[in-house]
Inverse folding.
């Protein structure tokens, strides 16, 4: 998530964004639920390992038609083994 979440509060900016890319509406509607891509306390040596796990989960959703909740649950289980 970008650091500039305040931009979604700017109606003029948001109208321009959605006018050009309307599919961002779902994103803007849920901005308050966004979390950082990397937890602040994640050890730096684990970042790439965890990134690979969640990208694989995304690929399973997109290319293997796996249910998002199942893919994310599996990814969380796999990631937790690193810690």
């Amino acid at each position: 998530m970008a650091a500039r979440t305040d931009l979604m509060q700017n109606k003029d900016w948001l109208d321009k964004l959605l006018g050009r890319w309307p599919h961002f509406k779902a994103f803007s509607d849920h901005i308050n639920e966004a979390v950082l891509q990397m937890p602040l306390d994640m050890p730096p040596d684990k970042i790439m390992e965890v990134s690979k796990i969640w990208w694989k989960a995304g690929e399973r959703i997109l290319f293997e038609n796996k249910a998002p909740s199942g893919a994310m649950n599996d990814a969380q289980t796999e990631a937790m083994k690193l810690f």
In short: Residues 39-83 form one domain. Residues 37 and 65 are 23 Å apart (CA to CA). The radius of gyration is 16 Å. The chain has a mean pLDDT of 86.
